[in-house]
Design goal:
13 strands, 2 domains, RNA methyltransferase activity, single chain, disordered N terminus, 11-stranded mixed beta sheet, TIM Barrel, 17% strand, alpha/beta, DNA polymerase, domain 1, metal ion binding, 14 helices, 407 residues
């Protein structure tokens, strides 16, 4: 996957700049930070950069390339959060990095809530005092092995405002940068003290509206954090022209389409943005995605009691999927109740009847186990309890940094 190179630069204090230039005369192999690069720089964040990029940064600061490899090890293996804690690096190099405005890019945990089933939802406080959610979901398999899934956000809030989603009710602030996405995974690993095995882009926000940063985060998670592409799922409610673009990267990750309805009229009521992306168009794009990548599309379907959960809806859904190809999988999600919502959770009987109707028509379906109900784990719930605008410096709400366990 061709990824755009991050541009970066430095603006060293005069004394250090002169020292670097003097050293350059003695050794022509050492490069000096470019003022031109400094004027073009978009980011001073180390997290998210590749091994090659970090080696180049070391060279630009008059260091040997192996110092870049040390940077890589400190960020991705030891997961050190502050440059001054990079004890393996010379003090002068650390100081030069900091004085040039570089930082690791890790953010503090504002609050953590643990559910009785072990699910942990985090609120991470970003540099601009916005809060973003991420969820760690531990799973024990029948064979005794364990998995840890990180459900990550791609935006602060969401502009699409699906009618059943708590995130949409909280409003939209901005897109996340790639390092802010990667940081969520590292925060989960740190809290659980184990590696994340799976990542799902199913947290706050619409990933396809932030595709550049999502793809950069995907690269880092795969190449640097070493999570296999097939262990990563990118979920979308559907944004025109983006599924085809994603297919062009030929990722081995799973595309999950949040469908939620078997026909256009009902889908528009549940997902207002569906008005600009007709169901037939989105299904054709999913079919083309499969033909381009040979990766099966998974369909997410939130079951809302009395709205889209009848056997008739299941039959209509099966007919829709068969019309546009075979090999589809439906992931059924019983609605996770949120305060102020007009929707209700369907009965277990309704859920089983829906599954049976699909399977009898040769559509594979699974019911997602509801996790973290007692930890406000529905997307956007916990964040809405704390913030719909940036935290104010010195505000008492900022004092809540400790992990609170409700288990």
């Amino acid at each position: 996957m061709a990824m755009a190179l991050l541009q970066y630069g430095c603006s060293l204090p005069l004394s250090r700049a002169l020292r670097s230039r003097t050293f350059t005369v003695a050794s022509s192999s050492v490069r000096v930070p470019s003022l031109k690069k400094a004027s073009q720089m978009d980011s001073h964040v180390l997290l998210g950069l590749s091994d090659e990029h970090l080696q180049q940064i070391a060279l630009d600061f008059g260091q040997k390339s192996f110092r870049g490899k040390q940077l890589y090890h400190l960020i991705y293996k030891r997961k050190v959060k502050e440059i001054q804690e990079f004890s393996q690096l010379p003090l002068a190099f650390r100081s030069d990095l900091e004085e040039a405005g570089w930082r690791v890019g890790r953010s503090p945990i504002h609050k953590a809530v643990t559910a009785a089933d072990g699910t942990i939802k985090l609120l991470i406080k970003l540099e601009d005092n916005r809060l973003v959610e991420t969820v760690g979901i531990p799973v024990k398999d029948k064979d005794g092995s364990s998995r840890l899934t990180a459900c990550v956000s791609s935006q602060v809030g969401c502009p699409l405002r699906c009618s059943f989603c708590a995130t949409g009710k909280g409003g939209f602030s901005r897109n996340l940068k790639s390092h802010e996405i990667v940081d969520q995974v590292l925060a989960i690993e740190e809290l659980f003290k184990q590696r994340v095995t799976n990542v799902v882009f199913m947290g706050m926000g619409e990933p396809m509206l932030n595709m550049k940063e999502v793809l950069e985060a995907h690269r880092c998670l795969n190449k640097d954090i070493l999570i296999g592409q097939r262990m990563i799922t990118i979920s979308t409610v559907g944004v025109p022209n983006t599924i085809k673009k994603l297919a062009s990267y030929k990722l081995q990750s799973t595309l999950a389409l949040s469908l939620h309805a078997p026909n256009q009229n009902l889908r528009e009521k549940i997902v207002p943005s569906a008005k600009s992306y007709p169901l037939n168009a989105i299904m054709k794009d999913c079919k083309d995605y499969f033909l381009e990548t040979r990766r099966r599309v998974s369909f997410e379907y939130t079951l809302l009691a009395g709205v889209n959960d009848s056997v008739e809806h299941a039959i209509e859904l099966a007919e829709l999927l068969h019309e546009w190809g075979r090999g589809h999988h439906v992931n059924l999600i019983p609605f996770n109740p949120i305060e102020g919502s007009e929707y209700k959770r369907p009965s277990k009987r309704s859920v089983l009847a829906f599954v049976s109707a699909l399977e009898s028509r040769k559509v594979t379906a699974s019911v997602r186990q509801t996790r973290g109900l007692d930890a406000s784990a529905a997307c956007g719930q916990l964040r809405n309890e704390f913030q719909k605008s940036p935290l104010l410096t010195g505000n008492a709400i900022q004092e809540s940094h400790s992990v609170v366990a409700l288990a």
